[in-house]
Amino acid sequence: MSSVWDIERWVDEAAVSAIRRFYPTALTHNISLPLSEIMAHLLFLVDQNKLKIVWEIRCPVCYYTVTIKSDYVTSGDIMECPLGHEFELTPDVIFPAFEVTETYRTDMQEYKKKLHSHGSMIRRAPVIR
User: Fold this and answer.
1) Would you place residue 114 in the very low, low, confident or very high pLDDT band (cuts 50, 70, 90)?
2) For domain 4-118, is the CATH number 1.10.10?
3) 26-59: per-residue pLDDT in tens?
4) Is 32 exposed, middle or buried (0-12, 13-18, 19+ CB in 10 A)?
């Protein structure tokens, strides 16, 4: 059974990979937790400054990602996609996505290099007999 630690490991791996943005559903392919639990933990990681949340606005006709916003998005505006489809900004065309923060990405890359060159951070303790 999966746990929130699997979410942490997934994000750590994403931080040192070419992944720039991901959807919460991407984690469901490898982690057997409810999407609501995955989303809650990803939001926790946003609070920890490991991730940032962005909002993708997609055309409901052609599914083209019209824009990506990092600030608050409100419903009601009329938008147009590059293919000329006009649509109203409603909750069903706004999708959450996550990005690893540059600070966390750098920290994880440095940690991985240090771990690779020095081995485990845990030092072998002397045996007490």
Assistant:
1) confident
2) yes
3) 999 989 999 999 999 999 999 999 999 999 999 9
4) exposed
Query: 81-113: per-residue pLDDT in tens?
Result: 999 999 999 999 999 999 999 999 999 999 988
Q: How many CA atoms lie within 13 A of 68 on its CB side?
A: 11
Query: What is the domain partition of the chain in residue ranges?
Result: 4-118
Contacts 24+ apart (CB under 8 A), 80-84: 83/59
Q: What is the pTM of this model?
A: 0.83
Structure-token match 């069903």, residue found:
92
Report d(CA 57, CA 89) in Å as an integer: 8
